[in-house]
Amino acid sequence: MRNLIGLCCSAIIGTLPLLWLPVIPGLRAIAILFMAALGVALIRHPLARYLALSMLCCSWALFSAREILIPVEGWTGKPVVVEAVINRSDGKQDHEMQIVSMAGRIVFPALGIRSQSSYLPDSVCAGQRWRMKVYLRPVHGQLNEGGFDSQRYALAQHQPLSARIISAQRITQRCSLRAQWLSVVETATQALPYQGVILALAFGERYGVSDEQKNMLRQSGTAHLMAISGMHISLAAMIGWLMGRLLQLAFPAHRIYFRMPLFASVLAAGIYTWLAGGNPPAVRALIGVVIWLFLRLQGRNWSGWEVWLCCITCILIYDPLTVLSDSFWLSVLAVAALIFWYQWMPLPRYIATAKWFYRYPLALIHLQIGIMILLLPLQVLIFHGISVSALLANLLAVPLISFVVVPLILVALVFTSTPWLGEYIWWSVDRSLTLLFTALSLLPDGWLEVDKRFQALSLSGWLAVIIHRLSLWRSSCLSVIVLMLSLSTPVIRAEKKDNSWQVNMLDIGHGLAIAIVRHGKVFLYDAGNAWPGGDAAQQVIIPWLRWHHLSLEQAIISHEHLDHRGGLLSLQREWPTLKIRSPLLWEGHHSCFQGDRWQWQGLEFTVKWPPAQPLMKGNNGSCVVMVSDGNVRILLTGDVEAEAELAMLKGRWGTLHADIIQVPHHGSRTSSSAPLLRAVAGSAAFSSSSRYNAWHLPSAKVVQRYQLQGYKWYDTAQSGQLTIDINSDKWQINSFRAQISPRWYHQWFGVSRDNG
């Protein structure tokens, strides 16, 4: 067993460099590493085999990463003709595909791409093969401190490219068997209120789950039950085993193969994984089931930790890029937490020996308490919050989903086309879900936002279990107290009242949102964009403020365009007393016109534009504000254009000098006139722009104009969130992409700077 643990650890260590490598080496370097591993394997030393395995796994991981980067470097920048197989589609404009042929050449392994906002000329379903002319773009994620890392997620999903479909022609019309099955189930359940949840549990298709249902699941901490994951695959394996046992009872003894239930369990798990579309959590669970089958067939009795290590190893060898997946590490920690909990805090003897109607509920409570305590660190880090009602909600939801809903769904999938029987089973599934969601709706709002101060404190659950089991509270009471106080220090630490302050330009795509931070309070300049079903405040601004434990006090809306005011309503719902300034003369808005001055947290705000009369609309009506602490001056310009820039300069040339300027109108050629740049005479310019925007912003000529005037250029498309740290007369601009780099998966993918 010691050899097994050593080999597994060696394989895992060999894959982990993908998490922190700055660049992926070329094929020659990978080949040299592979040959060196073979050479080390020939050395007769106990440690040589472990080192050789680490080097082999490292070369395999590097090769996998290199293969996924090749299309990024060679297929982008121009329209290409591909043949692609549809993996998933909402039937409208959101499609996940695999490229199987590029310009007549077979692509192996097939490369995953995603296309959004692209309508296909004919009806579309999974399994169809299409010939398309597409414009491929490297994946590019918005990067904000504490935000979702969509770029890393896309690479973990093997989707390094997005596609804009120029033209398309369907080659094969027939849908895959899974898609046909899905269509039949959609028809059978179309009249049921919880059809979306049923499709999520049966096929992993979550497009039908309403926002209200998603929010209820999130608030109650039960969202994990509605996505096909390890628990669901394990349930399918258990049902398969039971079916195998029933078949054994139907045959005479001499025809019974004693291992048939084992194979039936793996077969059932495989079918359910296929129904889920082969999503990564389901595949990882299937690998675990296969390992369990192997162990049972071999008659081996491994410990939980040995099986855990073996599963991690096999998953990473199967797909090294899984190491980039947050859901993978959440699963790893969840299983480790269960093993740790039952070893260190086993079920008390009086519960284990109690009657079954006492034992099972108490055992479930014991399990849920362990999961709640031990998964806190990752929940805080990934989800930035916890559900205080999760314990109560899961006590009902876990048994209902595990022993009623999922088994009924699996039975219904078999009998869907059977007259009246299939309809009745699906109705029973819907009634069960109705019971669940009704119960969840009766629970109080349980979601609690948690900021980054609680990261260290979230580890206290693990430490408490260790302290209790080792009785350290008796022998080292003072040490325990000091340890717990050290974890609590970030939470109870008082805000410093010093001269420092920050200006943060958030990476929100196309739009503008600048957070001025001092003494834990925030003054916001613009509220970002909005779109059907969401806005920048919900997606970025509010989570960012919550994660940093900041309170929003005031906001300026520079002008009426949606990409600058889109998140305002969401901000007002979150902070009803928010004081708003703007030149819009809207009800409840304070003025933001030329000559207005005010102070906030010791900072002075002076409005340079627009004049109160005549009232100006659009970009040239943007509220231009100078922010200063008496030493450093920052000019915020909104979308002001050249005409207004020149008018603003008349008679006020000397008053516009600033150290840093927010680039007007996202770097458009209609703004940033040379006279303005000379009048400001700053050292740095920072621009809010999105990659691949339709207007090709920022303009290359504008960037060059700033650089020729001696400005250092920054933009969010290149740098992610931009933070200006100011202390007395010293300031420094930090790029979040640079802070989390060097990481190969955070680089600016693609060789062109063109934002088109």
From TrEMBL:
Membrane topology: Multi-pass membrane protein
Ranges where the Metallo-beta-lactamase domain occurs: 510-666
EC assignment: 3.-.-.-
Subcellular location: Cell membrane
Molecular-function annotations in GO: hydrolase activity
UniProt cross-references to SMART domains, sorted A to Z: Lactamase_B
InterPro entries assigned to the protein according to its UniProt record, in alphabetical order: ComA-like_MBL (IPR035681), ComEC_N (IPR004477), Competence_ComEC/Rec2 (IPR004797), Competence_DNA_uptake (IPR052159), DUF4131 (IPR025405), Metallo-B-lactamas (IPR001279), RibonucZ/Hydroxyglut_hydro (IPR036866)
Root EC class: hydrolase
UniProtKB keywords: Cell membrane, Hydrolase, Membrane, Transmembrane, Transmembrane helix
Residues annotated as transmembrane: 20-43, 223-244, 256-275, 327-344, 356-376, 382-415
Keyword Cell inner membrane applies: no
Example of a GO cellular component annotation carried by this entry: plasma membrane
A GO BP annotation: establishment of competence for transformation
PANTHER family the record matches: DNA INTERNALIZATION/COMPETENCE PROTEIN COMEC/REC2, RECOMBINATION PROTEIN 2
Name of the protein: Metallo-beta-lactamase superfamily hydrolase
Organism the protein comes from: Buttiauxella noackiae ATCC 51607
